[in-house]
Design brief:
single chain, alpha+beta, Rossmann fold, Tumour Suppressor Smad4, 6-stranded antiparallel barrel, globular
Length: about 300
């Protein structure tokens, strides 16, 4: 039996994995990483791949794809019933559009650098989160390990993911959709319950962070720590379109919390209700709409870090 299971999403990075897989596999072999590759065939297939192969005996997994592939692998780790989640080691070769999870850990995007880190196998047991949400009026639940965004962020992610499905993609895709979404999005009356504390306000966007980055390099939760057992919640209140454009740089340079229309909280449990449905993304995946319930799952995923 091979030591590592490589879950390979050929469509990740607008087909970049498909184009680069021969090079990636050669580098894995060069660094003497003993692996068995399985290719995903569609949405959520990675969940099934992980469940089946953990039952067969695999305890080390490489996610080859973007943040969405990583998210599915994580959900597979939680849905399998063979071993405790922390007995599985998870590494990543990041080949996505946003590549946000790796930024918190300073894992390089070049394949050789990422594989050298895999080879060292230095690990940390980080937190995960669960989010309950609605899709077509049915309640669903998803695990995530980086960040969930809702409201304006959910709309931008939805547009960005639709572009990726159509084969459009570049590093500025998220920023392009952020600007274009300003003309259609309206802030919404929202009730947020943070560990029992109730906040009522008109909300533009909310980030629920385990990691620091989302949206292809935005630091929406700049103080988030991945293993402290707490969400880092960033609430951006109602803004004018001009204010959004004038403060986009704050999302990239990590000063968003210093802006007067932003509040931040640390929390284990968050409930969010809205006057009209608002959209959700988690780890870059567009999922559904409000109402939402978030819970932290402390120190539950063993990941390979730099």
């Amino acid at each position: 039996m091979k030591e590592w299971l490589a879950v390979v999403n050929p469509n990740a990075g607008i087909g970049k994995v498909r184009r680069d897989w021969n090079r990636i596999s050669e580098l894995l072999e060069k660094h003497e990483i003993d692996f068995h590759a399985v290719y995903t065939k569609g949405p959520l297939h990675a969940v099934d791949i992980v469940e089946e192969n953990v039952a067969l005996g695999f305890r080390k997994i490489i996610s080859v794809g973007g943040d969405g592939t990583m998210n599915e692998v994580v959900n597979g780790i939680f849905s399998q019933q063979t071993v405790p989640t922390t007995e599985i080691t998870l590494g990543i070769i990041s080949v996505g559009t946003g590549n946000d999870w790796v930024r918190t850990y300073n894992i390089p995007l070049d394949y050789d650098g990422a594989i050298r880190i895999l080879k060292k196998e230095k690990t940390l047991i980080q937190d995960a989160g669960t989010v309950k949400y609605y899709n077509n009026n049915r309640e669903k639940m998803r695990y995530f390990i980086n960040m969930a965004g809702l409201g304006f962020d959910g709309l931008v992610a939805q547009k960005t993911n639709a572009d990726k499905i159509r084969g459009k993609g570049n590093p500025m895709l998220y920023l392009k959709n952020l600007i274009s979404s300003l003309f259609s999005y309206k802030s919404c009356g929202t009730k947020i319950i943070v560990d029992g504390k109730i906040i009522r306000d008109k909300i533009f966007s909310v980030g629920v962070g385990i990691g620091q980055y989302n949206g292809g390099g935005m630091r929406q939760a700049p103080d988030a720590k991945t293993d402290d057992g707490l969400f880092d919640l960033t609430v951006i209140k109602d803004l004018t379109k001009l204010s959004v454009l004038a403060n986009v740089n704050r999302l990239y340079n990590g000063t968003i919390k210093k802006y007067k229309h932003v509040e931040s909280f640390l929390a284990k449990h968050i409930v969010i209700e809205s006057d009209t449905p608002i959209l959700l993304e988690a780890d870059g995946e567009s999922l559904g709409h409000s109402p939402f319930e978030f819970n932290i799952v402390p120190k539950s995923v063993r990941v390979v870090i730099n």
